[in-house]
Amino acid sequence: MRNILIAVLIVLITGTIFSIGFYIFSTQSKMARLEKEREQKPNIVQDPNMISIKSVKPEVANSQKKDSYNNTQSRPKTMYEKAMINRMASVENELNSYTPDNTSSCDEYVGYRVSLHNKWDNELNQIYKMLMASYPDSQKKSLKNEEIAWIKERERTIDGIRSEASDDCSANIEIENREIDTIKARAIELAEKYDRLN
């Protein structure tokens, strides 16, 4: 009788371990699949009056600008900020749908926050590069110094959160949420600067 109980207990423990492993594997597979699908989808702008990011052209020579000035009067202006916000809306909706209540662990929830953080960071890097390509040398240096100061301030804020947090989970959640807000705000700020150039 005792051997039967031990065998049943071993089977239950083994089954539980395999179930947990399968759950972790399937969750990671789902996240990888969603990430891959998101990368493969083209960026579609919802507003038909808006020009997509793919149509933004690099700076043209002054003579070409003067020739095309009259042709561009009737066409809507490129609003990079709007395009970026539209692009990120579905990403935010999807990743913000995960909460500590509907995820299996703090690490899983933080993983979704990190994904959103990375998406906004990619947008920020893209608009920063576009500005650097559009600015004259004097403004490039100013933007670079501004960006360095912004990064240092971000790091101070994160260090402050980490030192005040009661546990690793709450610190990670607060840090990621703060990072998302800060990076998003900076991306929008740079997009506004870019729109003023055009």
Instruction: Describe the oligomeric state of these chains in a short phrase.
Output: single chain
- Kindly provide the radius of gyration, computed on alpha-carbon positions and rounded to a whole number of angstroms: 24 Å
Largest sheet: none
Compute the number of structural domains: 2
Number of helices: 6
Helical fraction equals: over 70%
Mean pLDDT: 78
Strand pairing plus helix content: what structural class?
mainly alpha
**Basic shape:** elongated
Low-pLDDT residue intervals, each spanning 5 or more residues: 41-77
Distance between the termini: 82 Å
Estimate what percentage of residues fall within beta strands.
under 5%
- Helix and strand sequence: HHHHHH
Number of strands: 0
What's this, in brief?
The chain is an all-alpha fold.
Can you put this structure into words, describing what you see?
This protein folds into 2 domains: 1-41; 46-197, no CATH class. 78% of the residues lie in helices and 0% in strands. 14% of the residues are buried. The protein has 198 residues and is mostly helical.
Observed structural traits:
mainly alpha; 6 helices; 78% helix
Ordered list of secondary-structure elements with their pairings:
Blueprint: H1 2-40, H2 62-72, H3 80-96, H4 106-134, H5 137-164, H6 168-197
Helix pairs in contact: 3-4, 3-6, 4-6, 5-6
